[in-house]
Amino acid sequence: MNYLKENMTWCVWKYLDVGEGKPRKVPYNPITKKAVSVKNPSDFLSYEIVLPFRKNYDGLGVRVDKNLVAIDIDNCVVDGKLTTLGQDIVNHFPNSYIEYSPSGKGLRLFCLMNDSFQYDTTQYKMKGKNVEVYVGGYTNRFVTVTENIYQEGDINVCTDALTWLLTTHLKREKRTSKTIQAQSYLSDASVIQKASSAKNADKFKSLWSGDISNCSSHSEADLALCSILAFYCGGDKNQIDRLFRNSSLFREKWDEIHGNDTYGNLTIEKAVNSLTSVYKPINLDEFNDELTRLKHDFNFPLGNMYAWNDIGAGKLFADFYQEILRYVPERKSWFIYQDGIWQKDTGNIVAMKSVMELANLIYLCAIDITDEDKRKTFQRFSSKWQSHSYRVSILKDAQVYHPIKVSDFDKDIYMLNCLNGTYHLKNKCFYPHQSKDLLTKKANVSYEPQAKSHRFNSFIDEIMTGDNEKSSFLQKILGYGLSGDTRHECLFILYGVTTRNGKGTLCETILNLLGTYACTARSETIALKQNNSQGPSEDVARLAGVRFVNISEPQKGLVLNVAQVKSMTGNDTLNARFLHENSFDFKPQFKLYINTNYLPSVTDLTIFKSDRIWIIPFDKHFNEEMRDITLKQQFTSEPVKSAILNWLIQGYDALQRECLSVPKVVKEATHQYEHDNDKIKLFIEDCLELGGFEEKTSNIYYRYKQWCLENGQFAESMKNFKQSLSSQFSIVRKRPKGGGNKTTLLVGARLVSDFL
């Protein structure tokens, strides 16, 4: 039983009346509370996740997958004792795990199939009298698991016992008369293509090429090839004969008279008479789960929710696929839920394929309509779905039902989508992916709460030069990037004067770990531009839903666009659009992290007054002897990434408890950065002498322009210059102390003498 718990995927199930004469066991995902399809492995969960929901349903179930074999022995328990059939089968599986069925009247046995074992569906049936066998990879099924043990045992390979069971109880009988009405759905070329890609493709290809080494005689090989052709040709003897003549097995004997007919005709007759089924374009068994959902959850086609017309068709499609397909008007596209995230269905390929799948289901629904006139009306309706142009119109009509805005995605700023599920940063819960979360991003890491990495911890200590306070601050600001919370409204500059100081390795590691939650941005995104382009703002549009934005090594001399930075680091709604798409609004969730050897220039000092920028110094330099060239590779391994994620989560939790708590070294570096960008203050320090002096502002401005030219700075206008000086000095219009006409004077300083 432990094998099932550890290696297989699970569901819950309950009895439903679907109009088949007896209740049917329907599998459900307990998280989504929706009926699931056995064809979709992602709908099934681990045993640990499913188990707590058992009490709310009729039982647990397991998907028959991989090399698992499940054997049902029906009605073999009578008055507490086994029937002869039941006892015989149990005796052949003395060491296997066996449990009672949900009714208590039967047994279920589990074993494994050897990789080399061939389950030939042309020789063996799935169902016999009171015996059923479900084989992983061959039968699309789930089976119930009661854990009501009849016989303790292991789930292991039982090749001999399985062969005995199939041969004794499930071997197909050879028919002596034709029972299949001949009808081929395939062209000759399609028959070859289908047979060459089937489970027994190797056998077909071998026979088709004339290889009879696996048969006891040439005649046996002839019959084996004809049997395969008979299935795909639907029993059409003319097509079988035509194809066989093109195979390498064909020989003169084919046209020899044997009794009243040719050898070839007799061989074909024998193959056709042995048929129990033939190829059909639509296999009803493949649609059972989806048909059940269509009939039970949507009461189609007999209910009144969906009319048999164009409007009903569009609404049915939108409702049926609402959990995995939604239209986004701003992006002019359908979005599909796959692999735990919502993503753009480029070219609407998945949406169109889904319409085709629904068309096939609707075609099969006609069997539920007993009234002949209604059935004919419905068949006319279902036949329209086979037209490409009609399916295109259905997609257009469906767009008005359940549309979703870009701003509806990624709304919960505390959800962090990981490879193996979703972690909630606020309530610290971890649960399976679900479409209703409306997440478009996924981190490239699995959440493993016990994972640790001593090497990463030592790396942080090295690049922060052993400064625990600075290390803690770095951990908090990087953990801040896990959430969509932007309350601190600031950007972070990881600054190192020297190269090889670890900041690049750190940023690349976080970018890789956060997957689509992170992205790089061009330095032009935050640079002051000479012109104001009105083109598509794709640089900003691609940041919707992103949480960690890295700008790496901006060019020397870059001037920061302060207005843009304030907008991007604030909580203001941003507007952007992709090329050839509508514009859309979104709330920024991203934080900006710049790693650089050159600090950008700042012309608007108000950005410092509101603590919008913090400088984190990277003072360490790794020389050739200290450099670890394997470090980046180490940090991309799955266990280490999980450990780094835990380190980031710890940083986020610390940020919630302590706020930023900026350390002294960061404050000093930031204040120095502000000072170095305060052009007026630098000019005053270089060119003015403070005291009880006065100086004409015209003289000061003339010297200021010279100073700007000497220092590669842009000179402000006289008006702006005087306004900047007025914040530190008194500027008045009066007569100078030395006499003369009234003029504008700066009181409290004078120009430094060139001779000093």
In order across it, which strands form the biggest sheet? 10-11-5-9-8-13
SS elements, strand count: 31
Shape: elongated
CATH class of the largest domain: Alpha Beta
Counting structural domains, the number is 5
Beta fraction: 15-25%
* Helical proportion, percent range: 25-40%
Second-tier CATH architecture of the largest domain: 3-Layer(aba) Sandwich
End-to-end gap: 93 Å
CATH fold label of the largest domain: Rossmann fold
Look at the structure and give the mean pLDDT: 89
> In terms of structural class, how would the helical and strand content be classed?
alpha+beta
Largest sheet: 6 strands, antiparallel
Uncertain segments: none
Structural key phrases:
756 residues, ATP-binding, ATP binding, NrSPol-like_HBD, alpha+beta, 5 domains, nucleotide-binding
3D architecture notes:
By secondary structure, the protein is of the alpha+beta class. It has five domains: 2-169; 188-273, no CATH class; 284-404, no CATH class; 454-675, Rossmann fold (3-Layer(aba) Sandwich); 679-751, Arc Repressor Mutant, subunit A. Helix 18 links the parallel strand 23 and strand 24. Helix 7 (218-232) packs across helix 8 and helix 12 (349-364) crosses helix 14. The chain is elongated and about 140 Å long. The termini are far apart. The model has no long low-confidence stretch (mean pLDDT 89). It comes from Clostridium perfringens.
